[in-house]
């Protein structure tokens, strides 16, 4: 059995993430969607909220397990017996970042392989930071995220009120 880990912050999960996860599920016996809880970037949702949104997204799909984690991704992979890390590539700049991460992860844990899936064409523009920014300005994100995520974003921005600077000015990799 080949177990793959698809790690990310998923702040929030969007159709691009879902596409990569479902395509990975066609290739591997199990896909663990690992929601990282201590990233070095500004987040809108708490770790618990992000975990819940991802769980709601994949609740009826048996090939997926959704868990939170902290620490090194390769250590998490060792602990869950994963042989593969799944990553998505949207644009050329993603490749450089993922290439360096793959080399570092392989140095730390030589038994892990990194598989990069090229995003589907309709999702190349999509990132969590883009979704957050559009949602924060009241834009229509229905073509970017599932309904439960759109509702969570609307509620979160409503709770924060006007004048909150929660959307990073500089788009960070997500």
Overview of the structural elements:
This protein has 174 residues and is of the alpha/beta class. The chain has one domain (3-160): HUPs (Rossmann fold, 3-Layer(aba) Sandwich). The chain is 42% helix and 18% strand. It is built from 6 helices and 5 strands; from the N terminus they run βαβαβαβαβαα. It has helices spanning 15-27, 47-58, 73-80, 92-108, 128-136, 147-160; strands at 3-8, 30-36, 64-69, 84-89, 113-118. The chain has a 5-stranded parallel β-sheet with strand order 3-2-1-4-5, with helices on both faces. Strand 2 (30-36), helix 2 and strand 3 form a beta-alpha-beta unit. The longest helix is centred in the middle third of the chain and has 17 residues, at 92-108. The radius of gyration is 16 Å and the shape is globular. The two termini are 29 Å apart. Pathway: Cofactor biosynthesis; coenzyme A biosynthesis; CoA from (R)-pantothenate: step 4/5. It catalyses: (R)-4'-phosphopantetheine + ATP + H(+) = 3'-dephospho-CoA + diphosphate. It is found in: Cytoplasm. Keywords: ATP-binding, Coenzyme A biosynthesis, Cytoplasm, Magnesium, Nucleotide-binding, Nucleotidyltransferase, Transferase. Pfam families: CTP_transf_like.
């Amino acid at each position: 059995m080949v177990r793959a880990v698809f790690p990310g912050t998923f702040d929030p999960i969007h159709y691009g993430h879902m596409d990569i996860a479902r395509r990975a599920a066609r290739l591997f016996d199990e896909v663990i969607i690992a929601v990282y809880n201590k990233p070095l970037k500004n987040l809108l949702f708490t770790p618990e909220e992000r975990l819940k949104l991802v769980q709601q997204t994949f609740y009826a799909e048996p090939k997926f397990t959704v868990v939170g984690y902290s620490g090194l991704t390769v250590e998490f992979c060792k602990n869950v017996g994963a042989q593969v890390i799944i990553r998505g590539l949207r644009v050329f700049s993603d490749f450089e970042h993922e290439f360096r991460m793959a080399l570092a992860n392989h140095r730390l844990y030589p038994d892990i392989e990194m598989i990069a899936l090229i995003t589907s064409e309709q999702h190349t523009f999509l990132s969590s930071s883009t979704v957050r920014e559009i949602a924060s300005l009241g834009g229509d994100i229905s073509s970017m995220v599932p309904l439960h995520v759109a509702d969570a974003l609307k509620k979160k921005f409503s709770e924060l009120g006007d004048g909150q600077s929660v959307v990073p000015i500089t788009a960070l990799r997500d």
